[in-house]
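Help: read this over?
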Amino acid sequence: MTAASAVLTAGLLAFPAVVPNSVGRAGSLLETFLPWLGLVVVVLLGLALLRRSAVALVAVLLPVAAWTHHFGVLLLPAARAGGDDLVVVQHNVSDENTDPAGTARALAGAGPDLIALEELVPRALPEYEATLAARYPYHAVQGTVGLWSRHPLTGVRPVDIRPRGITEPWDRGLRAVVHTPHGEIAAYVAHLPSVRVRATGLASSWRDESARLLGEAVGAEEQRRVLLLGDLNSTVDDRGLSPLTAHLEPAERGLAFSFPAGFPLARIDQVMARSATVRHIRTLPATGSDHLPVAARITL
């Protein structure tokens, strides 16, 4: 039984796409929490040792190898920072955050070149603007998302990622060109729709449609270098994001589980790039949000 479970776990780690999305989006649900299959591997290893079964021990090596291949590289030390690197911070600040100014100070304290925020609400926006103004003289806000920068911004425009069926005001995407000392980069800030885990499975159709629209915008971007910062409401392994992730590369190092802040289970706050490299991503200390901020280093 232990050996069979080990082989099954190895198969799920190596080939999660075999689990279909046709029923309750089970495949996406598995992919969202794929790293946690490592706990299953630990339990299986313990059982194999307890039973002193050579067959089970050999079988457990299969999921160990699969997990290490998929996620082990993320745990390796990041390459040393280079002179042309950018530091960016991505944070869903929460529309219920009671300390916007404190949150803004905490994010600026990480010393980033860019800060991307989601769930900006009208009552809190002036506090973010006032607190960040001295260090970040350039900023753009579109609906509930915003970008603060040390470097000039041009070409600011909204990105329409609203799924069909949402009729109320819904403005969650922007694009701007950041003029860094090392060249221009098109920066996208986005907040995809939330998903829900229900008795029938994962409800993610709006999120998936929004990811497709954002993927089309990124794919059509004329700037060679592209940076995406956003709350994508899933992990980069989730096939529901594949129309978007097909155009971008995720971080080379770091797990950075960002949600929920009290007990992070997954990184749904993402930093990805095209024609640039996200060397490392990490979480920052908790703010007044239900998400943890993430900071990433980008090599241009």
